């Protein structure tokens, strides 16, 4: 039941339903609405005519016709008028109602654009926050197995904030440069990639190698999407680092090198023999979490969790291990221990690893926040 952020044209998504940022007439318009009607063909407009419009905050379902998606859910977002006219609640209601319709119709995958963030003028960063919060809330509560895609059309939509971006850039740059001995060229390359026009940027091979099959299937134009599943091969180049001493954090639960109570009585051999799956289940117990609390917090699909649970020798991908380490709020030491169980390590010669280190060192354990940063730096995301 994960939330996956992709960069793509929503009309290319092979999902059960795509959501249209429609207007109240439901008779088509510009932006994503126009693109969806063009791709779906005239029969979509015919069906929309029969619906007789839709109120702001509500949604209606039609078939997808020529689209790769089976259905279109038309949601009417609010026009931004400074935020004083209930825009936030109406926007959240668009997402909730669309998800409800998808659930009622037994749909398993749904892709949203950033509703209201175009012609309707809702500030993109705020619109993204509402979208993410509402989808996360829904996913945490629903029993349905649903994968939700948030389709970001342009880089500006996913703005993690200048201050955070700069901080991460410096953190990564310093360490990455030390490990590569060439900081000037790192920043030059980074600036170059940021200046590339919308849509013309493509992914490097290691990211495409890491793309998940399911996501690839949903995103016809794989080069225009950042595909982000954990269960793919992942570039884990680089030597194992010396684990940094964990910093205490306000949020972090007690963890770290000190043996936990449940470790007392275990022999060293037992701990060495412990597989990734064993360690994960032990940590979940030690944290007093339920399985579903853990995999939902990790943004990991229930089916994948079941596989890991039932196969003690399951070989997870690196992002999967990290997603669980984040959900369990492990410090850097323990994260490396968990990674080692699966044959991986965090390295300073890998930007993805450095971004993870940045968040863990600060005791920031929100997978979605981390994913926003990974997305901004064109890295593979956690979870799914
Ligand atoms: P609204 O009127 O609700 O603001 P718009 O269509 O103008 O709707 O824009 C909503 C969002 O959809 C914007 O962030 C825009 O960048 C994005 N968008 C436009 N075309 C597409 C597309 N083909 N696929 C995905 N997102 C799109």
Summarize it.
45% of the residues lie in helices and 8% in strands. With 384 residues, it is of the alpha/beta class. A hairpin with a 7-residue loop joins strand 3 (59-63) and strand 4.
Could you walk me through the main structural features you see in this protein, from its secondary elements to its overall organization?
- The protein contains 16 helices and six strands.
- It has 384 residues and is α/β, with parallel strands linked by helices.
- Strands 1-6-5-2-4-3 form a six-stranded mixed beta sheet, sandwiched between helices.
- The longest helix has 19 residues, at 162-180.
- The radius of gyration is 22 Å and the shape is globular.
- The N and C termini lie close together (8 Å).
- Residues 195-216 and 219-264 have low confidence and may be disordered.
- Bound molecules: adenosine-5'-diphosphate.
- Adenosine-5'-diphosphate is lined by residues 9-11, 21, 31-33, 35, 77, 113-120, 151, 153-154, 157.
